[in-house]
Amino acid sequence: MKQQILIIGAGFGGMWTALSATRLFDIHGHHDAEVTVLAPQAELRVRPRFYEPDAHRLVAPIDELLEAVGVKFIQGAAESIDIRQKSVGYIDTSGTPQVLGYDKLVLATGSRLAMPNTQGVAEYAFDVDQIEQAVRLENHLKSLAGLPESKGRNTVVVAGGGFTGIETATEMPARLRVILGEHVDLEVIIVDRSEKVGASMGDEISQSIAEACDELGVKWRLKSSVVAVDENGVTLDDGQRIEAKTVVWTTGVRASSLTEQIPGERDYLGRLHVDSHLKVIGQQDIFATGDVAYAATDDLGNHALMTCQHAIVLGRHAGNNVAAQILGVDPISYSQPKYVTCLDLGGWGAVYTEGWDRQVKLTRHEGKSLKKQINTVWIYPPIANRDAAWAAADPLIPIA
User: Fold this and answer.
1) Is the CATH code 3.50.50.60 the one for domain 121-249?
2) Which of the residues 100, 114, 190, 228 could staple to 235 if both were Cys, CB 3.0 to 4.6 A apart?
């Protein structure tokens, strides 16, 4: 009977795990293992672009790609993991509970926006965490044109000044002018607990962020937090009220709650601690990758972030190593010492940095050109061709 590798999740981590595992089996001529991906859709959702308009288009079907490399796809939503029985419970497309067995499990279920219990957030705030939520925000923005002119209509509050918050806020002036008119008096405000603009991004990059925000008219309310949201605006922790018909929540993500069903140590974001081969520490037959893995990228104390940049490489290693365990060959230790960021700053351009200290290398139009290449070419799946897909899934590909 064939050994069963079950991968839960079809995002960057899950897709690359599937490609890499089948690649190693093919290299060794091994035909006694089956790789299965369980996910709600056979598509890669390009989450790093959800702040853009037309979010419904930011998907890349991967059914033909998976078929090309011999991966079985099962459409369904995983709900439970039984490590003793080595099984996963899921709900299929008809709403019927089903169970899948496995010999090796790879958890690649990603992350979700960490929604707080803040009053009114669930009812009145928007987010760009998933395609459906990004489309909801887009439809709301378009509806503003039908409302009477008011300060609240023309104001957007973005809660959170991290990566997503900054990209969303700096995109807003151009999007709103298309909807409301070129000469409308707009106000986009980032509410953040930090003492400095872009503080979470580092000192050097924060200078570019501040410059871009000044040029675009994006304001910051520092050392502040939103304590309540309603249909007409927000209340801050100092009691001040900001009238705004649009509130976007971007205050961080947490790993999929399925990590809680696997015994093991987790970090403060819910990610499972893994060893250098991405096996969950304390579990012989369970690997974690992408946003659910707390993995060391180097020997300097740095760990992978919840980004596609890290998930792609994590997936290549997880797939190789779970297959290596079945084959009885040496695994490849995960290492990703080079870290870069490319932060989109709307009409100002973008800022590209290298290193964990985020040394600025490109800004404005040069940065924007690179950001566009990353977003539209580099992070998309390979073509549905077996040889091309396997070549791209090699964990030893040099990291540019």
Assistant:
1) yes
2) 228
Instruction: Tell me: pLDDT of 399 over 70.
Output: no
The partner residues of 207 in beta bridges, in order of sequence, read none
Which residues touch 307 (CB under 8 Å, ≥6 apart)? Answer: 48
Closest CA to 357 of 222, 206, 190: 206
Q: Is 186 left (phi over 0), alpha (psi -120 to 50) or beta?
A: beta
Alpha carbon distance 189, 197 (integer Å): 12
Measured at the CA of 296, the angle between CA 290 and CA 300, to 5 degrees, comes to 145
* Predicted TM-score (pTM) above 0.85: yes
Question: CA-to-CA distance for 259 and 107, rounded, in angstroms?
Answer: 8
**CA–CA separation, 154 and 167 (whole Å):** 19
Tell me which of 44-48, 159-163, 234-238 is least confident.
44-48
Q: What local confidence, expressed as pLDDT, does residue 398 receive? A: 77
Rounded to the nearest integer, the mean pLDDT of the chain is 96
How would residue 48 be classed by pLDDT, with cut points 50, 70 and 90?
A: confident
Q: Which two tokens stand for residue 176?
A: 């709103």
CB 370 within 8 A of CB 362: yes
pLDDT at residue 153 tops 70: yes
Dihedral over Cα of 82, 85, 87, 92: its sign: negative
CATH 3.50.50.60-classified regions of the chain: 3-113+253-338+382-392, 121-249
For residue 400, pLDDT over 60 is answered with: no
3-state secondary structure of 153: coil
Q: Decide if 132 contacts 223 (C-beta within 8 A).
A: no
How far, in Å, CA of 144 to CA of 311, rounded?
37
For 3-113+253-338+382-392, CATH gives 3.50.50.60
Question: 243 forms bridges with which residues in the sheet?
Answer: 233
